[in-house]
Write a structure and sequence with these properties.
With about 110 residues, the chain is mainly α. The protein has a domain at about 30-105. It contains three helices and two strands, in the order αββαα. The protein starts with a helix and ends in a 5-residue tail after the last helix.
């Protein structure tokens, strides 16, 4: 039964209080996990920002009242927001692929 709890504790690639100098109870994580989480957070924020721009551009489009310059501005905003959302999705897939390959093979020290 002790082995099961040890495996559960190690899920997520972090250990509590095992790094030299880390006080008991502090979480010490692998640098790969920190970098992967940072990239995923940045990509998620980019996606949320793109969706927000799409909503804003839709609002501009609805309130353009047929003025061609306002319609053009809304269409350009929607186009750029969709491009940004596509970039966020593709970069998320690439980052996920790279980090999964790095975590499966492990990085050997130089």
């Amino acid at each position: 039964m002790h082995g099961l709890f040890e495996k559960i504790r190690l899920i997520g690639k972090y250990q509590v209080g095992t790094v030299t100098g880390a006080p008991q109870g502090y979480i010490s994580e692998d640098i790969n996990v920190v970098v992967a989480r940072s990239f995923r957070t940045a990509i998620t924020l980019l996606g949320v920002f793109s969706v927000g721009l799409i909503i804003y551009a839709g609002y501009l489009f609805i309130n353009s009242q047929g003025k061609s310059e306002n319609v053009d501005k809304a269409q350009k905003t929607i186009t750029y927001a969709i491009i940004g959302l596509g970039i966020a999705i593709v970069s998320g897939l690439i980052a996920n692929f790279v980090f999964s390959k790095l975590s499966n093979q492990g990085l050997q020290p130089l």
